[in-house]
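Write out the 3D structure for:
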Amino acid sequence: MRVAETVERTKDHIARCVRISNLLALWTITTPEVELKSVIARHLYWAVQSAERLKVRLTELAVDVDPRTVALNTAANDFSACELALSTPEKIRTLYGVALVNLKKSIVDHLDRSGPLADEPTTKILAELLISAARIA
């Protein structure tokens, strides 16, 4: 995978993490169940930390990016489904069944297409993000 493609894929991961964190922040406010607020908060923390780690990697690649302004080129349907979820079961179903699943698929695809020899720092970060995501699920 070329550096330019790595940069674009990493920007896409950042945009997905930012969108997920924005949705989770909104859901924290609108979800009445305290137990679910703590689950949502764990995912919110993971999404923000993931975006920050990927932003640091882009900085290492000499790309200055503001995560709030990164355009999301893909996954518009994923997030529109999440934004339309009104009840708590719908929120959890779209989080675990749509948004996080597609983010993980995108990260795994990035790892498959870019081996450790091509871009070891990025693949290491992405692999660590997958491991930490599995722990909070």
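The mean pLDDT is 83.
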